[in-house]
Automatic annotation (TrEMBL):
EC number: 3.2.1.-
Family to which this protein belongs: Belongs to the glycosyl hydrolase 38 family.
Top EC group: hydrolase
Protein name: Alpha-mannosidase
Organism: Arcella intermedia
GO cellular component: lysosome
Keyword Hydrolase: yes
Residue ranges occupied by any Glycoside hydrolase family 38 central domain in the UniProt entry: 310-390
Enzymatic reactions: Hydrolysis of terminal, non-reducing alpha-D-mannose residues in alpha-D-mannosides
The protein's required cofactors: Zn(2+)
PANTHER family referenced in this protein's UniProt entry, alphabetically: ALPHA-MANNOSIDASE (PTHR11607), EPIDIDYMIS-SPECIFIC ALPHA-MANNOSIDASE (PTHR11607:SF28)
Entries under InterPro entries matching the protein: Gal_mutarotase_sf_dom, GH38_C, Glyco_hydro/deAcase_b/a-brl, Glyco_hydro_38_C, Glyco_hydro_38_cen, Glyco_hydro_38_cen_sf, Glyco_hydro_38_N, Glyco_hydro_38_N_sf
Gene3D superfamilies found in the cross-reference section: 2.60.40.1360, Glycoside hydrolase 38, N terminal domain (3.20.110.10), Glycoside hydrolase family 38, central domain (1.20.1270.50), Golgi alpha-mannosidase II (2.60.40.1180), Golgi alpha-mannosidase II, domain 4 (2.70.98.30)
């Protein structure tokens, strides 16, 4: 009979916020875990331990109460292979609501700490608690140098166990081939707490009289799992949430069980020892190689949605306000990071204080990637913690960015300095001028219509050559805008560049802005690309046409609501199909030279009005960046109890009930409708974009934060905008959300063969908006003191290559992490899906002294080539130094 080798892996799963704040968990539980586990490993050299969340470990490492002896002990354990850092990221990230850039950044934060502190590079994934599994996470881990990936929470695990399919080679992004393929294991049984559930010892410590009972119980559990796997190796993950708060008695009891099992291995045929995942996988692979075991391949599959008695599809939308701050934090990093990286290299600023500000935002963004962070599944106090960390991080990062930008554009003695945002425009007085300096964090030139709240209607806009710029001042329509008016004007910026505009107020207010008019007949609004027809009888959109390609569809866009009966923070459980919020929406239109707005109120009753939307259509001489989409801004809430609001587009597209959405804003996945499993089982995450199509037309929606998306009927696509179940689903904190939220969508229509170019580009333009910095000045003074335009690039990056990262490695080394991502998949576009060859030495306007290609998190060098070819869906990472 074959001996079963059981690898007993002591672990703790420490949520970086959930029922307590980060600091609350650290002080009451995590510090005890690390203190007592270090002592337990010192007491017995056979014991081992793994740890995941560097957000907590760095708190402990830097805690004044942690002794040098404890730190040195951990270093010794790591060197001996008795303490392994698994994943090694800042948190164990969510996989549904996160972007691929957000996941990478928090991985890098943790990996760089481990490299600098211990000289180690994590190689094993351990995604045991996220609610479903993305196809992108294993690919990112493989690009980071990992060789194994572990997941737990998936639907229908029994099917995989019974057919020995818990182990496989996962190729989540087929375009990458074996470069993105990784050995993956689904954790068997009930999950990552199974073994601790049987071997807790808290109420019945092991002693000579009961050790045989525990030993036989262990044997039975191991043998019961032996048929699930292709090799005689079993991973016994001994731990759970915040386990080992008093490690000594736990290890003392388990030591006796392990000793009994080892002494009885010849009769039980079960061999047990403390181990790490690396030891376990080495044994699995060695056996498989000897026995010529071939692992099955899984291509372009993910594991959404997740079913655990209820369908966990509500968290795709839970806490919409927080989800907006998370995306804003990532967008702000895309502004502040490159300014600091290049600006510090050129101007040698006070790098320590500026870097500390940048790092504060990195940490805040990292916390938010946690699977109870961006998901909105924490208690309200913790939601506020994430939000406040993000707000503070965004503010200090933008202030530091303003300092660097001010230094960069300076050309002589200065008469002013930049501050983040457009507040100066709110209080502009008669005769004053405000310099508006816009910065573009993307690697492509772009056009945008920028919008500022203002309190007067007589402003004038000119460019840096003092030539008039077309602009529009309209009554404020956004629900989160408290000003009287909004100022719109178009801006063009080079990639990674800045551009200056001047907004002035005359000596007295003389301009009368356009006013809203009721919709009294069928009305068509259009620019040179799109045409939108509103029906006067319904006060809703009835037709949408792309004038350039001739695609035209009928569409009924409406705001609907589901009523919750079994929903919570995690699960979505409606009582039936969605119904209209209002049978009598009220619509008004305002037409201007630059933007036409149609505002619709959806009164639920005479005394309940919690839903409003504004549709904007921009016009700017046929510029596709500005004219190829309709923009919808929602103003939703506070919602009544048990209400979940969606916007639905019912169209004439024959989509065959097929929806396409993205994993982590990176990999499109086709979603076939699951008949007979309910409304909620057909919801999926939308991160950047989702669409429905047929051979003739594709309707795409682009989001600026994560939501749930579904297609509940042929030709229909709906996005959940806000939810207030005001109840629990039995899986943790309930969800009561009475916030008023203002999310947005961009809607595109095109032929399917042309659609991907627009969808991909708009995904990045929308999620990485221009950042504004302002200063009260005079045009003459500003032109004497500052340059008005510039770029950190020699020219645009190719349209299919995204400048994913330009981040300083640290405050002092001058090393900068450069990441370039090919954002197109195979066969999405005849041109943009092709490989791209670049000369890295010719990308930036500042000369480069050194280029080294590395793994994804910049913790291992790969090559020094400067001319590279980037294939579809590949992400390449480099350490560079500017001269």
């Amino acid at each position: 009979m074959c001996i079963l080798n059981v690898f007993l892996v002591p672990h703790t799963h420490d949520d970086v916020g959930w029922l307590l704040t980060v600091q609350g968990y650290y002080e009451t539980q995590v510090r005890n875990i690390l203190d007592t586990t270090v002592a337990a490993l010192q007491a017995n050299p056979k014991r081992k331990f793994i740890y995941v969340e560097q957000a907590f470990f760095t708190l402990w490492w830097n805690d004044a109460r942690t002794t040098d002896a404890q730190r040195n002990a951990v270093k010794q354990f790591v060197n001996e292979g008795r303490w392994e850092f698994i994943i090694g990221a800042w948190v164990m990230p969510d996989e549904a609501c996160t972007t691929y850039g957000g996941i990478i950044d928090q991985m890098t934060l943790g990996h760089q700490f481990l490299l600098n502190t211990f000289g180690v590079r994590p190689t094993k994934g351990w995604q045991i608690d996220p609610f479903g599994a993305s196809s992108v996470t294993p690919v990112l881990e493989k690009l980071a140098g990992f060789d194994a990936h572990l997941i737990d929470r998936i639907t229908d695990k029994d099917t995989y166990q019974n057919s020995q399919r818990l182990e496989f080679m996962w190729q989540g992004v087929p375009a990458l081939g074996t470069k993105g393929q990784i050995f993956t294991e689904i954790m068997g049984g009930g999950g990552y707490c199974d073994w601790l559930g049987q071997f807790n010892f808290e109420n019945d410590p092991v002693n000579p009289s009961n050790v045989a009972k525990y030993g036989q119980q262990f044997v039975n559990m191991a043998q019961g799992r032996s048929n699930w796997y292709k090799t005689p190796n079993i991973l016994a993950e001994w731990g759970c949430d915040f386990a080992f708060q008093n490690a000594a008695p736990m290890f003392h009891s388990m030591d006796q069980v392990v000793d009994w099992l080892q002494s009885n291995a010849l009769t039980t045929h079960v061999n047990v020892s403390y181990a790490t995942p690396s030891q376990y996988y080495d044994s699995v692979w060695q056996y498989a190689e000897k026995q010529n075991i071939a692992w099955p391949n899984t291509d372009q599959q993910d594991y959404f949605p997740y079913l655990a008695s209820l369908w966990w599809t509500g968290y795709y939308t839970s806490r919409v306000e927080l989800k907006g701050f998370v995306r804003e934090g990532e967008a702000t990093s895309h502004i502040a990071e490159p300014l600091f990286s290049v600006g510090n290299s050129i101007y040698h600023l006070d790098s320590k204080s500026t870097f500390d500000a940048i790092n504060q935002l990195r940490v805040a963004n990292g916390y938010a990637q946690h699977h109870d962070g961006v998901t909105g599944t924490s208690v309200p106090e913790v939601v506020e913690m994430y939000k406040n960390y993000l707000i503070d991080g965004i503010n200090v990062a933008l202030k530091s960015a303003a300092v660097v930008l001010n230094q960069w554009i300076m050309k002589g003695p200065t008469v002013g300095s930049l501050v983040p945002g457009g507040d100066a425009l709110l209080s502009i007085a008669n005769g004053q001028t405000v310099a508006v300096v816009l910065f573009n964090g993307l690697g492509w030139s772009r056009s945008d219509v920028v919008v500022f709240p203002v309190n007067r209607s007589d402003l004038v806009v000119v460019d840096s050559n003092l030539k008039p710029v077309p602009y529009q001042i309209s009554p404020a329509t956004g629900g989160n805008i408290t000003s009287s008016y909004q100022l719109f004007f178009p801006a063009f910026l080079n990639g990674l560049g800045y551009q200056t505009y001047f907004v002035s107020a005359p000596s007295q207010e003389i301009h009368q802005p356009p006013q809203f008019q009721p919709l009294v007949e069928d009305t068509t609004i259009e620019n040179s690309v799109l045409s939108i027809t509103y029906s006067q009888s319904t006060n809703r959109i009835s037709h949408l046409t792309n004038k350039k390609t001739g695609v035209s569809i009928s569409v009924d866009q409406n705001l609907l609501q589901y009523r919750s009966i079994r929903s919570g923070a995690y699960a979505f459980g409606p009582d039936g199909p969605a119904t209209p919020i209002s049978n009598s929406p009220q619509t008004a239109i305002i037409k201007g030279n630059l933007v036409t707005e149609i505002v619709t109120q959806f009164p639920a009753s005479s005394d309940s009005n919690y839903a409003k939307q504004t549709v904007r259509l921009y016009s700017n001489q046929g510029n596709p960046d500005i004219e190829e989409f309709a923009e919808i801004w929602f103003d939703i809430g506070p919602l009544p109890s048990h209400i979940e609001v969606v916007t639905a587009f019912n169209t004439s597209i024959d989509s065959q009930n097929l929806l396409t959405s993205e994993d982590n804003g990176f990999q499109f996945m086709k979603r076939t409708y699951n008949w007979g499993t309910g409304i909620e089982s057909n919801y999926y995450p939308i991160i950047y974009a989702s669409f429905i199509n047929d051979p003739f037309a594709q309707l795409s929606v682009v989001a600026e934060r994560s939501h749930g998306v579904s297609s509940q009927a042929n030709g229909e696509i709906e996005v959940m905008i806000h939810r207030n179940p005001d109840m629990g689903d039995g899986f943790g904190p309930g969800l009561t959300d009475t916030t008023r939220v203002y999310p947005g969508l961009r809607v595109l229509l095109d032929k399917p063969e042309f659609a991907f170019a627009g969808v991909r580009r708009q995904s990045y333009l929308y999620n990485f908006p221009l950042s504004a910095f302002t200063s009260v000045t005079t045009t003459s003074d500003w032109l004497k003191s500052f340059n008005t335009a510039g770029s950190l690039l020699q020219g645009d990056l190719p349209a299919n290559i995204h400048l994913l990262s330009l981040n300083a490695l640290d405050a002092t080394s001058k090393n900068v992490i450069l990441r370039l991502a090919h954002i197109f998949d195979l066969d999405e576009d005849p041109v943009l899906s092709m490989p791209v060859t670049l000369d890295l030495s010719k990308i930036f306007s500042q000369p480069i002294a050194q280029i080294t290609e590395t793994t994804l998190t910049a913790n291992q060098n790969l090559s020094t080539a400067t001319i590279i070819t980037i294939n579809p869906k590949d992400i390449r990472t480099f350490l560079i130094q500017f001269k």
